[in-house]
Amino acid sequence: MTAALQAHGLGKKYGRRWALTDCNLEVPSGHVVGLVGPNGAGKSTLLNLSVGMLTPTSGSVEVLGEPAGTQQAKVGYVAQDTPTYSRLSVADHLKLGARLNPQWDESLAQQRIQRLRLDPKQRAGKLSGGQRAQLALTLGLAKRPELLILDEPVAALDPLARREFLQDLMEAVAEQELSVVLSSHLVSDVERSCDYLVVLVDSRVQVSGEIDSLLATHHRLTGPRRTAKELPSDQYVVTESHTDRQSTFLVRTERPILDPAWSVTQLTLEDLVLAYMGREVQPERPVLEVQR
């Protein structure tokens, strides 16, 4: 199956500063992918490069098997500030969407506007933040894309508006069989809506895989003090901490942990994400990818 998004040595430089460097990534089709990382990790730059809004300084990025920017009709995009035109009405936005997108689904757009109770005559500048986000999502969905890219679309919304937006997104995914890449710094949003995770730190993918599989293969071990070298070779150490008498390791392994000296606990998604975000980034470390 063709990857939804694939980057090879991808980099973007502004003057002397690299916003993204040497990024290698493969996002599979058929998933709702949560792209998570700290501020400055390069998430927005990566997504802007992926939709052709930026040109790479180095490397390459492909979307749906073709160079980025050549598949506009198949890719929907909602940017970080959920952009709309403040002076245009809701109806004007739909007319613009119909003119710019050959696969535009007017029926879907009108149904969403009615269900959301948006006044077609209302200017976008007079809408609430949640309403603008829903309008932007409507434009992205009504073009009937194969891939929908969302760059922190709910970051500025209140909890209720955020929940409604994500519920609408999940309904659309089920109805249209979309592939989705959702960038977010809120793990709760990823947990609620995504089935695949990518953690990006300093432009490098630290871990990727189906969320259920990642959670099933990562464990916290607590027990008598020992070094990482004393652990079995199949236990990959993500993080470790020690006191005078006790050691705590976060490990990834696909085998049962049989050592009775360890107290073994499962991780939450937030535990897992924070562990990979907090560890020192080393280019030579392997990317952990888990597939079912």
Automatic annotation (TrEMBL):
SMART domains: AAA. It comes from Kribbella antibiotica. InterPro entries: AAA+_ATPase, ABC_transporter-like_ATP-bd, ABC_Transporter_VariousFunc, P-loop_NTPase. GO terms for molecular function: ATP binding; ATP hydrolysis activity. Keywords: ATP-binding, Nucleotide-binding, Transport. Pfam families: ABC_tran (PF00005). Transmembrane segments: none annotated. Residues 5-227 form the ABC transporter domain. This is ABC transporter ATP-binding protein.
